[in-house]
Write a structure and sequence with these properties.
alpha/beta, Rossmann fold, seven-stranded parallel β-sheet, 7 helices, 7 strands, 42% helix
């Protein structure tokens, strides 16, 4: 008797929209959903070379109201409905001199990309998710929402707001059968993450491996580490999970 579990095609027939899914961790998430059988649309300002070949692409900047509307319209037309939404766009640049050095424009940009993009895109596609019998929203946050760190204060604050929004949304949508969960990665090896860590190291003189040193498991995360958890939350394996926030950070926030 073979008791090995097979999750290879558990999302067959499901339609997924992954915002910002054109490179790094975001592309890995989109690819993992494709590998599980989902039909996937990814978004971005440009497709680039790292976007999954099996995904459809729609152009749009989800940090703007107009961009969200364009993405939602094109994605729903391409998919013919929606079962899974992964709000994945995010990021910010560090300010080595700390919180007071972060400009008004950078604060606004951080909230536009890391909070309001998810709020606006969720609202835009919610009617389609209500039509699904397996609706699932996975919002990608960060362990920075739980760790006070001046150079990334704007990023951490926006992600903390995303966490509370997600918990509230889970309560609102639970009675309608739509699950809402959060994945909070730690430092992951991606082009964007590597660039932010290098900028921080260059500005402060901190050693290049300072982030890896703070992870009890002794390494930075891989995009696949995060993608696997997202796939689980989007699937029937998590059909009694909503309002959860799963840390995927090698134990960094356990200190």
């Amino acid at each position: 008797m073979n008791n090995k579990l097979d999750f290879s095609k558990e999302l067959t027939g499901r339609r997924a929209l992954v915002s910002g899914g054109t490179r790094g961790m975001r592309a890995a998430i989109a690819q993992r959903l494709i590998d599980a059988g989902a039909k996937v649309v990814v978004t971005g300002r440009s497709r680039g070379e790292s976007a999954p070949a099996g995904a459809s692409f729609v152009v749009g900047d989800v940090s703007t109201v107009a961009g969200v509307k364009a993405v939602a319209t094109q994605a729903l037309a391409a998919l013919g409905g929606l079962d899974i939404l992964v709000n994945n766009a995010g990021g910010a640049r560090p300010f080595a001199e700390g919180t007071a050095s972060i400009t008004e424009e950078e604060w606004q940009a951080a909230f536009d990309l890391n909070l309001f993009a998810a709020v606006r895109l969720t609202n835009a596609v919610l009617p389609a998710l209500r039509e699904s019998k397996v609706g699932s929203i996975v919002n990608i946050s960060s362990n920075a929402a739980r760790m006070a760190f001046g150079p990334f204060a704007h990023y951490g604050a926006a992600k903390a707001a995303l966490d509370m929004y997600s918990r509230t949304l889970a309560l609102d949508l639970g009675p309608k059968g739509i699950r809402v969960n959060v994945v909070s990665p730690g430092p992951v090896v991606t082009p964007g993450g590597d660039g932010a860590r290098k900028a921080f190291s260059d500005a402060t003189g901190a050693p290049g491996d300072v982030f890896a040193q703070s992870v009890p498991l002794g390494r930075l995360g891989s995009p696949d580490d995060v993608a696997e958890v997202v796939a689980m939350l989007a699937s029937d394996r998590a059909n009694w999970m909503t309002g959860a926030n799963i840390l995927v950070d090698g134990g960094m926030t356990a200190r």
